[in-house]
Amino acid sequence: MARITSANAFMVDLEPKVVRTDAIQSFKSQETIFVVLRDADGARGMGYSYTIGDGGASILALLKETLLPRLMGQEADRIEAIWQDLLFCSHATAVGPIMSLALAAIDTALWDMRGCKTGLALHVLAGGAKTSVPMYTTEGGWLHLPPEALAEDAKAAKATGFLGSKVKIGTPSIAGDTARLETVRMALGDEYEIMTDANQSMTAAEALRRVPMLERLGIAWFEEPLPSDDIAGHRRLQAQSRVPVAVGESLYSPGQFADYVAADACGIVQADVARVGGITPWLKIAHMAEAHNIAICPHFLMELHVSLVCAVPNAPWLEYIPQLEDIASPMARDGGRALAPEQPGLGIDWDHDKLAALTVAGSAFEIRERAQ
């Protein structure tokens, strides 16, 4: 084992490739927070986290003032011990998004370092269940797009091998949501999977009104119909729906997922590796879901999640939303399947010159181990 001797952190702000809107918000930008760790053996690991436009400075401040100084001198291989120590040293700020997003930047860097030191790719290091996974695309399903555009995007995706598309719902009327989904179903046929996402926009009554329509159209899942803290409402909805209720992108700890699973309040979990605090807790959530015969279909971050969904047996889909192509090589694909990277560590081929050019002014800093 070797102790951690230094850390660098910085932030890159990436504009979305297309307009991304849902029922409650618009994706302004991806503030991407990077952490680079080095140990006494000279090994290096690079991890990252993100926001959708706000809060990046708060994550950097937590890393600079609290988490990275405490990390110095700890043994890099003791990833679980580090995660627990960092969580509880700032327990007054947990559980919540800022703490989890900061932890994720560190945790993913530690897993990257472990992979690089062992020579193992992340999907093997974390389980090795498979080497590729089907993708569904969200990039052409945003709420501002008319039904005809949704169908054209889905047809183009299907032509390249994709097996499904996600369509945002949550228009002011059930007729509006019905028109969106019926147009796609008529154009793509019954075999093509259609996922829906309401982004926490509905009351329990409005969500329940849409269930017969979703069932009739053979929808794959009904994502975030209600506010994420309404476990009881999701439980009642799931009990009355043959369409699985999917939750998770707005949950921030394994315990929050455990509450949903224990309440029979969801049929699919969608843990986001950044929003739950990194790879260490993500794997716990995935295995908990597997033990309850529930699929995990993670939210966003396809370049990182591709390795995780290939590590576990109960992850049937990867969400396709390209966002890192300005700063990293494109994720490997075979038609509509994503291929797990075979390089050691996270397997993301970063363009360091572009990262340097796009680093937000004043965001970069370094923390070093104090001399003994």
Number of strands: 14
- Class derived from helix and strand content: alpha/beta
What is the CATH class designation of the largest domain? Alpha Beta
Rounded to an integer in angstroms, the radius of gyration calculated over CA atoms is: 20 Å
Strand proportion, as a percent range, falls in 15-25%
CATH superfamily of the largest domain: Enolase-like C-terminal domain
The domain count comes to 2
User: Which CATH-level-2 architecture of the largest domain?
Assistant: Alpha-Beta Barrel
Uncertain residue segments: none
| Major beta sheet summary | 10 strands, mixed
What is the H/E order? EEEHHHHEHEHEHEHEHEHEHEEEHE
Helix fraction?
25-40%
Q: Mean pLDDT score, rounded?
A: 96
By CATH, the topology of the largest domain is TIM Barrel
Query: In angstroms, what separates the terminal alpha carbons?
Result: 18 Å
Q: What is the global morphology?
A: globular
Tally of individual helices: 12
InterPro entries: Enolase-like_C_sf, Enolase-like_N, Enolase_C-like, Mandelate_racemase_C, Mandelate_racemase_N_dom, RHMD-like
Cofactor: Mg(2+)
Organism: Thalassospira alkalitolerans
GO molecular function: hydro-lyase activity; magnesium ion binding
